[in-house]
Amino acid sequence: MSERTQTKHLVFEVPELERFDFAAGQFVSMVASREGKLQTRAYSIASAPRGNNSFDLCLNRVDQGFFSNLLCDLEYECDVDFHGPYGAFVLRHPLRDSIFVATGTGIAPMRGFVESLFDGEDRSEGKEIHLVYGTRHESEIYYRQYFEEIARKFSNFHYTVTLSRPAEGWQGERGYVQDQVKKIIESRPAETRHAMDAYICGLNAMVSANRKQLTEMGWERKQIVFERYD
User: Fold this and answer.
1) pTM of the predicted model, to two decimals?
2) What range defines the domain where residue 25 resides?
3) Edge-to-edge strand order for the sheet containing 129-135?
4) Residue 150 C-alpha from the chain's centroid
């Protein structure tokens, strides 16, 4: 759990099912009653299918937030209702060289993508996969140890973190994710710079900035898959 943002990683099981099937990158809608009215809130699944009935979520506690506080305060083996999975924010087939771009808890579906490609065995078919994650402070780098370990094990997985408000002594990248995306694309041979796909998840301003930049660099809209959560 991040001390600054009160971010939690939660694991759920679906007892009615032996196997909960979904595609990495999809979301579920959690359901609860508030003052006699049903409330729903969508959360990206932060894991890949495991062949069993479990899935993970990553979420922030929000001041005065009903659902975030409800889920963050759940005790072990408590029940919560949901429906799904839903969503078309999934990996394209055939897989191509790709850039995953996320900020904040937008990292959740990216963790699912990476698990689906690299956990247990390499299913990436040798494609170059870049994960660019941006946040303000070093304390907010979610799943850092996991992604660093994958990058050590697989030479075709590249993990870049960039901070917008780094503390003195930070040795990594600085600035916004779109700056790192541009560096990655421009580092490739000219003839391969458009032979990629981008998957972007985060707040609207970040998603829009990256979509605008990529189209200005000559990418087609169909190469850019995105999910916004504000």
Assistant:
1) 0.93
2) 7-86
3) 173-174, 157-163, 129-135, 98-103, 197-202, 224-228
4) 15
77 with 166, same domain: the answer is: no
Average pLDDT, the chain: 93
Report yes or no on 93 lying in a domain: no
Instruction: Using the predicted structure, report yes or no on whether residue 78 has a pLDDT greater than 90.
Output: no
Stretch 35-54: mean pLDDT, rounded?
Answer: 93
Q: Using the CB atoms, write b or e for 82-94: b if 16+ within 10 Å.
A: bebbebebbbeee
Q: How many residues does the chain have?
A: 230
Last residue of a domain, one of 51, 86, 121: 86
Place of tokens 């200005």: 216
Q: How far apart are CA 123 and CA 116, in angstroms?
A: 7
For residue 64, what pLDDT is reported?
74
Considering the domain architecture, whether residues 115 and 198 belong to the same structural domain is answered as yes
Residues 18 and 132 in one domain: no
pLDDT recorded at residue 74: 84
Alpha-helix residue ranges (DSSP H) falling in the chain: 66-72, 107-118, 144-153, 177-186, 204-216
What's the burial of 212, exposed, middle or buried (CB within 10 Å: 0-12/13-18/19+)? Answer: exposed
Rounded Cα–Cα distance for residues 73 and 31 (Å): 15
| Inter-residue contact 101 to 177 (CB < 8 Å) | yes
Location of structure tokens 């990158």: 25
The CATH number linked to 188 is 3.40.50.80
What pLDDT does 33 receive? 83
